[in-house]
């Protein structure tokens, strides 16, 4: 049974020449290293999530408004259809001489 010392483990952990090959690679930290004055990817993600949530709420409100408007239109359309049918019936009755 072979024992590895702490020094050997540290050498293995630091032997990565390309940070992308490191098994403990963190993409967020890597990208943030290139843009130190910009907001972190986590804060950008939080801001994006807030905006998406706000847009989703507005979409729900708009959908509800559209449903109310279309319900009114459907009612008016049905009334128009009934009125036209009634006019046709009266016209036919008039033609029959009743």
In words, what does this structure look like?
With 98 residues, the protein is mainly α. The model has no long low-confidence stretch (mean pLDDT 82). It has one domain (25-96). The protein contains three helices and no strands.
Summary, kept brief:
With 98 residues, the protein is mostly helical. The chain is built from three helices and no strands.
Cα distance spanning the termini: 113 Å
Residue fraction in strands: under 5%
Q: By helix and strand content, what is the structural category?
A: mainly alpha
Low-confidence stretches: none
State the helicity in percent bands. over 70%
Number of domains: 1
The radius of gyration is 36 Å
Question: What's the number of helices?
Answer: 3
Q: Which H/E pattern describes the elements?
A: HHH
Describe the main β-sheet briefly.
Answer: none
So what's the overall shape? rod-shaped
Overall pLDDT metric: 82
Number of E-state strands: 0
Furnish the topology, listing elements before pairings.
Layout: H1 6-13, H2 27-34, H3 41-96
List keywords for this structure.
0% strand, mainly alpha, 3 helices, rod-shaped, 98 residues
């Amino acid at each position: 049974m072979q024992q590895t010392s702490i020094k050997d483990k540290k050498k293995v952990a630091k032997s990565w020449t390309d940070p992308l090959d490191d098994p403990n690679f963190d993409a967020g930290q890597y990208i943030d290293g290139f843009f130190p004055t910009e907001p972190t990817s986590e804060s950008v993600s939080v801001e994006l999530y807030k905006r998406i949530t706000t847009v989703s709420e507005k979409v729900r409100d708009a959908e509800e408004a559209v449903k109310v408007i279309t319900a009114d239109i459907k009612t008016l359309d049905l009334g128009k259809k009934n009125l036209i049918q009634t006019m046709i019936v009266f016209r036919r009755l008039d033609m029959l001489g009743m």
